[in-house]
From TrEMBL:
Residues 1-58, 305-347 are annotated as: Disordered. This is Retrotransposon gag domain-containing protein. Residues 163-255 form the Retrotransposon gag domain. Residues 305-332 have a biased composition (Basic and acidic residues). Transmembrane segments: none annotated. Pfam families: Retrotrans_gag. Residues 14-29 have a biased composition (Polar residues).
Amino acid sequence: MAPMQPLFTPGYAPTQNERQAQQRQTAPGSESRRWITPSRRSTPDLPQPPEGPTQPGAINVEEMMRSFMSEEMRTLEAQMEQRFSPQIQRATTSTPGIDDLARGVRETPLTSRITNTITPKFGSISFPRFDGMSDPHDHLLQYKHVVQSTNIPTHMLNDMMCKLFAQSLKGDTLRWFCNLPPESIDSFDELSLEFMRSYSVHIQSGKTTKDLWGVIQGPHESLRAYIKRFSKAISELSGLDDGTAREALKKGLRHRSLFKNEICARYPPRIQDALHRAKGFIELEEENERVERDLTCTRDELSKARDDRAKTFRRERQRPQRRTEHRVERTTRSGHKRPLSPPKYALGISPSELIAHLERQDFVTWPKKLPENPTRDTTKY
C-alpha cells in the first residue's frame, strides 16, 4: 500500500470535521481516499478529480474556467481603457485635447476643389456678422448681395462665396462651420442648406394676404403712421398683385378720410402710385394739426389771461381795508407810520392868498352869480 499523501497543506488549520475525516482514513482497514487539498482560494469540501492520464474526450473544467476568466479580464481592461483614457490624458497633460483642437483647425469642410481656387483681387469687404440669434435667411440674402457687388468674376462667384462665408460668422456659428465634416461642402447651395437647417428655429414665418387685410388705421392714428405700417406689411409679402393691395389699403383707412375719398374717386393703377399720392395728404393732415394746435394754444392763453384778471379783480375787492384808530395815520408792516392820504394842496401860500393872486390875473374869468331863488329860506342860507 502506497504511503498516504498529506491531506492538508502546511500552515492550514483544519476544522473538527476535517480532523475526524482524516482519522477515519488513517484507521486500519479503511480504504485510502484522495480529497482536494484545502486552500484559501478554493471552495472546501469539493472532491478533486483522480490523478492520472486524462481520458480521451474528457473536459478539463479548470482550464476552461481559467481561459474564460482571462478573456473576461481582457475585455474589461479594454473597456476601462476606452472609457477613462480621455480623463487620464487630461490629468497627465498640461494642454488637454490639444491634438483634437489642432486637427479641427487644420481641417476644413470645403472640398479641395474650392480650397485650391485662387482668390482674385476684389478689395476689402465689410461682411455682416451672424451670431446665431437672428434670421438666417436674411443673413444669406445680405451676404449674397455684398459678395455679388464686388469685382469677382461670375464663373468664380460660387466658389468664392463658399470660401468667404466663414468671415461672416462669429462665436458659436463659426465653431459650427469648423465642426462640419471635412470635404462635405462642394457648392454654396449645399452650404446654404446646411446653414438653414442648423438655424431654422430663428426663421421668421412668412406673411400672407390675410395679414395685409388686418392692417387697419386706428381711431387716433395719423396717416403717416398707418402708411408706414402698411408699407412694411407689403414688403414682407411676395407675389402680391396691385388689385389686392389697393383694396386692402382702401379698407384699412378710416371712414370719411380725405385720402380714402381720393382713392375711391381716382382709382390708382398701381399700389406704388397710391402710396406716393398719400404723401400730399400726409402733409395736409400735419399742417391742419399744426394750425389747430396753434389756435388751441392761443385760446388757452387768452382764457388764462382773462381768468387771471378776474382773479386779481376779485382779490382786490375782497381785500379788507386795514385802518388804525386815527384815520390820518396807518401803520405799515415795518412799523413806521405814514399819512392815510396825501395833503390836499402842496403850495407855499394859503388858499386865500392864492385866490387873491388869481383875481389880479387877466386870464382868470370868474363865473357869474347864480340867480337867487325867491322862495329860498334866507334864515338857512
